[in-house]
Each structure stands twice: as structure tokens, then as C-alpha cells.
Amino acid sequence: MVEQGNAGKKAPQRAPVKAPKKPSRTRRAVLFGGLGVFTAAAIAGREEIGRAWWLLPGVSKPRKEGELDHTGASWTAASPANWRMADRPDDYRVDRIVVHVTQGGFQSSVDAFKNPWHKASAHYIVRGDGHVEQLVREMDVAFHAGNRSMNERSIGIEHVGFVDRPKDFTDAMYAASARLAADVCRRYGIPADRTHIVGHSEVPGADHTDPGRHWDWDRYIRMVGAALSS
């Protein structure tokens, strides 16, 4: 039974509690912050559009057979079956160097890269006497790392010899390869460190062991850095 004194009356209403004000950004901060995001997105978008353009069929840079990328190298063309035409660094960024060892002699390695059934190549081969042979243009993708993504972003440098014969890694070879690697680093803005200069054995998914434990990485990186700064 309802008490007579409260019948038909509403309970008293409480005043709503106002939430504390959050600090607000000024219109100018919002405007310039938005412009910054928009500008960054526009630059990134323009870069990706530019790369997409170079990936279109029929779009390619002018090229000349036998044109060298590294002064002092000689030219032998690898079979077109062992590399893929590209327009680097406009279509794919170049930010890695992969160090290899041939596990064979100089001429047998050159012949292998000329053989269309070999299905592999590298951009360069460095011999024990310091001679450098270029077989694939740097703008193109050599099949050297056993990893498509790494192939597209890297330059492959072979060194004549065997991983278990430290005598194959001569002073002349280190010096010539360091000059070559420094030249590549300079042209593509690649840091001369062990993050960006790697061995074939360090490539994800690789089943190779080169350059092996006898390759002197500390010496090599030091020499690349010295050549880069000279």
C-alpha cells in the first residue's frame, strides 16, 4: 500500500555532473598536424606511384649491352635465363650487398653464369688477383641469393675460391672487393655495416654456407668503410 503523503509525487531530480574538460588542441595545431600527415602520405604515395610506373610492361630505362657500373671491371654477359630485367633503383630499392664464394675457379664460374640451364648468376665476380668481372647490370635482378625479395634489393658479389681454403681470400681480393662494395654503397646510399652487407648464408631461406668462417668480416667491413670515406 502506497503512503498517501508520497502518492503521485516524482523523486527529486539531481543536477547532471559535468565531466572535466579535456585539454583541447588549437585550431592551428590541428591544421598543421593534419597537413603534416597529408604531406607525408602524399610523398609516400608519390614514391609508390613512381615505382609502380617503372614496373609497367614496356617501361624501361635506356640500356647498352656491356656498359659497366663499376670502373675497372670487365664485362661478360650472363645468360638472360639467369637474371631478370628491371629498372633499379626506380622500381626496386637497392639496400643490400650479398657476399658469395664461387666454390670453383674463375672460368668455370663465368661459364656457369653464361649457361642458361644454371638458373643463377651474380652481378660481379672478384678474382684472387683483384680482377673484377661484371656479368649482370646493377639495374637488373641477378638470381644469386635464393630469395626473390633479397635478389630484388641487393647486389651480388662472388669471390673465386672455396669456403674451406682461407688462402683463396687474398689481400688483392679483399682490396678489390672492398673498393667495389664501397662504390655500390656510395651510389645507392647503403651503410657499410653488417646489417646491409651480408653473407649468402645469412639470407633468409638460404641453404648455402658461403662465405664461410674463413672470410674476415671485421677486416672487410673496415676496408669498405675506408674506401667509402676516401
Give your account of this protein's structure.
- The longest helix has 28 residues, at 27-54.
- The chain starts with 26 loop residues before the first helix and ends with a helix.
- The chain has 230 residues and is an alpha/beta fold.
- It has a six-stranded mixed β-sheet, sandwiched between helices. Strands 2-6 form a two-stranded antiparallel sheet.
- It is built from five helices and eight strands.
- The model is unreliable at 1-12, 27-35 and 37-41 (pLDDT under 50).
- Strand 4 and strand 5 (132-134) form a beta hairpin.
The strands making up the biggest β-sheet line up spatially as 1-5-4-7-3-8
How large a portion of the residues is in β-strands, by DSSP E? 5-15%
Overall radius of gyration: 30 Å
From the helix content, strand content and strand pairing, which structural class follows?
Answer: alpha/beta
Helix content: 25-40%
Distance between the termini: 102 Å
- The biggest beta sheet, please? 6 strands, mixed
- Gross morphology is globular
Q: How many β strands by DSSP?
A: 8
Runs with pLDDT <50, length 5+? 1-12, 27-35, 37-41
Question: What's the helix count?
Answer: 5
Mean pLDDT: 84
Helix and strand pattern? HEEEHEEEHEHEH
